[in-house]
Amino acid sequence: MTAAINEAATTIICSSKQTRFDIKNPVYQELDIEGLNITVTSAAKPDVKAKGKARAEGLEILTNASLKLKGGVHYALIGRNGTGKSTILKAIAQKLIPGIPIQTRISILQQTSEEESSNAATATELASGNGLSVLEEVIDRATSRNEIQREIDVLSEAIDGQATTLAPLRALRQVQHDRLKKELFELDKDARLRSGTRGMAARKALTAFEKKVAESIERVSQTDEEIDEETIKEETHAASDLLAELQSQLEPARIADIEIKARNILSGLGFPKSNLEKPVSTLSGGWRMRTNLASVLLQSTDILILDEPTNFLDLLGIIWLQKFLLQLPDSGPNPPTVVLVSHDRDFINAVCQELVILRDKELTYFRGDLVSFDVSIRAKKLYLGRMKDAQDKQKAHMQQTIQQNIRQGKAAGDENKLRQAKSRQKKLDNRMGMEKSATGGQFKLNRDLAGFHFTARAEIEIPTDEKGVSILLPDAPDLRFPGPLVSLEKVTFKYPTSKKSQPQPIVLQDIDLTIHMGDRVGVVGLNGCGKSTLIKLLTDTTKPTKGTVTRHPRLRMGYYSQHAVEDLQALGRIAPEFTALSLMTKDVDSELDEGELRGLLGSLGLPGRTASDVPLTKLSGGQLVRLALARLLWKCPQLMVLDEITTHLDFHTVTALADALSGWNGAILVVSHDRYLVRRVVEGEKDEVGSDEENEEDEEEEQLRRRTVFLLKGGGMKVLERGVEQFAESLEKRVEKLLAS
């Protein structure tokens, strides 16, 4: 069965196998969907052909995959940027996949940039005109309070106003008709998604319901003369009953309980109490994303889908969300299934019990965290590599024997030798391959290689590197004479005020920081602690109120802004003709030729036509991060200041980036809420499954390299002796208090 939905200029087409047995009252317990195909196409009307299989030109996301979700289990969907993770989550949330019960309650937080979140919220605000506060918005979206209140207003105005005796009847019929239209939409989707016995039943139910809607239209359109007194009396009484029922749903005690939960969630996500009464329209995109996340967490649901929920959260909010999700299994008899996408390795390892790996248009499953997964992949590569080496030696020996038998058979006219050679060649061509099944048992043709194949055994395929594209950073040039790259001495910064009588708020006070070539510096702290101000002082975009900032006269600094991706997206909208290569060509102004630019872009994962033909607006967030890196690396900086660089990357690319930064010879200052990145790049922690081998030069360089993690708090900066984990432990204690309140 096939379903499709239009998303702006694109269409998501889904098809899957379905049982043709009649299942009564299907409800969500778990999903086990086979033969799942998902395609994204720009065609407005996809060409759906025989047997319900979507045949449309477009980007294939999944081909003959299996979607398996068990009730109450937490899953992490992992895969490289651009493979379609968000599309799969959207298809699940909108129940486009045949086999998802129509009654299933699904809540989703969709991935969005700060600018997209701001634009979407503004559009919603203009459309609704409701001007709700943060707290009201969260409660309304989680409980449909606004819709219930709308029905109450319609009915109460008709009953209390008594403009005419028919007013309550008219109001009741309009409310009922609006509800029927919503139900018709769901039944129509259900009928399109089902096949076989269930599909026939769904279509019969749809036909019957369409008649019901038609009758409702006739009732709404009846003239006053066509309605008798008995009907007026009955429906006026029914309108009063419905009004009482709706008002009971908004009882102050019930709403008060929901409001307490909403306040606790918003507090955990970092909202100050003073901001809860602010209109949503006054918030930035990042705070609006937190508002959306709070409303999703407040809803009662069967499947909770979170696409990059840690974007725009500081470490306190990330740890709170971890704890909140870990408490869900104890929240009731039917805890929700959680499916999330995140670039934060620590967050995934803490929250998720199983991994769903999207690769080569297939979904595979692994029970365990990312560390266990990486170890298993490494062990599998080692095992299969040894098996393939042994088999290659065996094949070479057999080939040598075959040639020898052919020569001897032809020389002596020995038919037995020739038949023996032919038999061995057949074995070599047809029966060499996997000797063990995926479970480790003896390979069996009818069990382990279903379908038609040219050989009796599958080839030994060694898994390729799962870390995504490799990232190569050009070496930083040497300084002609020694000295610190940048130094802050007793630096204080205060924002200026319009009135002299008002005290200037202190953002940073008496900050001392010195960075030498090769140093690794990490800066952590909660949102609003002054990290952005510190970066502005380092990059000379802001002057200190007191103190001195000195820089090496030959210093080249590369600054990656946390808004770099949004800035490139905005540039792409202003100048649609810009590609990565053309933008870089404009930046370098003939200092590098096209070959050198392509080499730099290719080393960062933007090769060939991706760099030269794809406009900026069509590049993924991860690709734009690589472009932003290229724009600062072509200058060969000695110091890189990286502000939240992992936000738009998948976790594979975060790992590759951490590897590249760890071995770079320049100095790095990292501002990040990603604990893994800080540990790997700043603290020098080794990759969990990486090689520990280092040559003598690397060891000497490592001994000279200074590694420091600073905590910004209350305007001051102090060294964390145990690094980012010390900061995380202090926040966990705060989170425990928040959850206990």
UniProtKB/TrEMBL annotation:
<dbReference type="InterPro" id="IPR017871">
    <property type="entry name" value="ABC_transporter-like_CS"/>
</dbReference>
<dbReference type="Pfam" id="PF12848">
    <property type="entry name" value="ABC_tran_Xtn"/>
</dbReference>
<dbReference type="GO" id="GO:0016887">
    <property type="term" value="F:ATP hydrolysis activity"/>
</dbReference>
<keyword id="KW-0677">Repeat</keyword>
<dbReference type="InterPro" id="IPR050611">
    <property type="entry name" value="ABCF"/>
</dbReference>
<dbReference type="InterPro" id="IPR032781">
    <property type="entry name" value="ABC_tran_Xtn"/>
</dbReference>
<dbReference type="InterPro" id="IPR027417">
    <property type="entry name" value="P-loop_NTPase"/>
</dbReference>
<feature type="domain" description="ABC transporter">
    <location>
        <begin position="33"/>
        <end position="385"/>
    </location>
</feature>
<keyword id="KW-0067">ATP-binding</keyword>
<keyword id="KW-0547">Nucleotide-binding</keyword>
<dbReference type="Pfam" id="PF00005">
    <property type="entry name" value="ABC_tran"/>
</dbReference>
<dbReference type="InterPro" id="IPR003593">
    <property type="entry name" value="AAA+_ATPase"/>
</dbReference>
<protein>
    <submittedName>
        <fullName>Protein GCN20</fullName>
    </submittedName>
</protein>
<feature type="domain" description="ABC transporter">
    <location>
        <begin position="486"/>
        <end position="715"/>
    </location>
</feature>
<dbReference type="InterPro" id="IPR003439">
    <property type="entry name" value="ABC_transporter-like_ATP-bd"/>
</dbReference>
<dbReference type="GO" id="GO:0005524">
    <property type="term" value="F:ATP binding"/>
</dbReference>
